[in-house]
Amino acid sequence: MEGKEIQISGLEDKVKEILQMSTTSSGMKRELTSIIRKAIMQARKNISQDAKDILTNDPRQAYKAVRSSVYKQIFGGQVNILPERTRHAATKYLRQRKLDNNPHQRGGNRRKRSERTMQIDSYEGKDRSFILRFINQGTTQRETRYGNRGQITARKWFNISSSMQMEAAANHIADEIELLLQSEFKLQ
């Protein structure tokens, strides 16, 4: 059996172009990471807006506690409402009480505010992720020596919103990658 050698001109150039489109090449990796980052940031923005819509009275902006990250080693990312590892600067926010305006009125809360209450009230924005988790998961019935403090009913808004937004982000990423590959093949 005889072998025949075939030479195709320009094949080496095409092989180089295909290898440049591989995810191991730095240029393609940078493009894909950029696409993923934009989609994850849009999902975070939409989830944050959903949180803002749920929190009707939010003077300390807990909706800013929705976090996102894009992975370095693999292609992907995530959105969460977990606390950050570092705490930001405290604020001097003081809630307005009825007794502050009219100290001679009957009734109302006349207890002094504890240090812990002052500390929790000093959290703002990104540090208030615990508020988002309380609203998402709810709390149990809370009793203190001063009486019943009630409970927060679980709304599970994060589960619903994040599933919807991350699915939309995945679809957007797939469309953008398809457009990127089409433009790469047409340009070459």
Tell me about this structure.
This protein has 188 residues and is mainly alpha-helical. The two termini are 38 Å apart. Helix 2 (26-54) packs antiparallel against helix 6. 48% of the residues lie in helices and 8% in strands. The protein is elongated, with a radius of gyration of 27 Å. The chain has helices spanning 11-20, 26-54, 98-101, 115-121, 129-137, 157-187; strands at residues 67-70, 77-80, 142-144, 147-150. The chain is built from six helices and four strands, in the order H-H-E-E-H-H-H-E-E-H. The longest helix has 31 residues, at 157-187. The model is unreliable at 3-8 (pLDDT under 50).
* Secondary-structure element pattern, one letter each: HHEEHHHEEH
- Beta-strand content bin: 5-15%
Mean pLDDT: 80
Helix percentage: 40-55%
Largest sheet: 2 strands, antiparallel
Q: In oligomeric terms, what are we looking at?
A: single chain
Query: Structural class of the secondary structure composition?
Result: mainly alpha
| Count of helix runs | 6
Distance between the termini: 38 Å
Shape: elongated
Radius of gyration: 27 Å
Identify low-pLDDT runs. Answer: 3-8
How many β-strand runs?
A: 4
Spatially, the strands of the biggest sheet line up as 1-2
In short:
By secondary structure, this protein is mainly alpha-helical. It contains 6 helices and 4 strands, in the order ααββαααββα. The chain is elongated, with a radius of gyration of 27 Å.
